[in-house]
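Supplementary Methods, section 5.1.

A reviewer requested that the exact input to the structure prediction be made available. We therefore reproduce it here, unchanged from the version used in the analyses.
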Amino acid sequence: MEEAIRPDYRKLYMDMLDWKYPEKKEVCAEFLKKRKLEALDVITLNTMIFGDRKSNQKHKSYDQNSILEILAYQKQNPCTNKELSLLFKISRNTITKWKKIYSQKAGV
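The structure derived from this sequence is encoded token-by-token as follows.
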């Protein structure tokens, strides 16, 4: 199966840090060293640069690796779907749906 074409988030964030936020470049350097940024990396970088803004969460998307990482986090740190949804700012229904779809892959 072909991989979907995705924006080059690494280049976008590097340019943004160069032009508008050079003081935050050092803080974000660890993430920008990665060759490919996952969905959770993009969300973390966004929070590091812009702070914790309350924004529209409707158009967030997660790749399979990020979903499995979130489900693994819940397994390692026993928490309810509600606690996990508050932590990652995801709907409880979305977490439940992911558990049904990825239950064999995540070992949940």
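The CA atoms of residues 16 and 22 lie 8 Å apart. These observations are discussed further in the main text.
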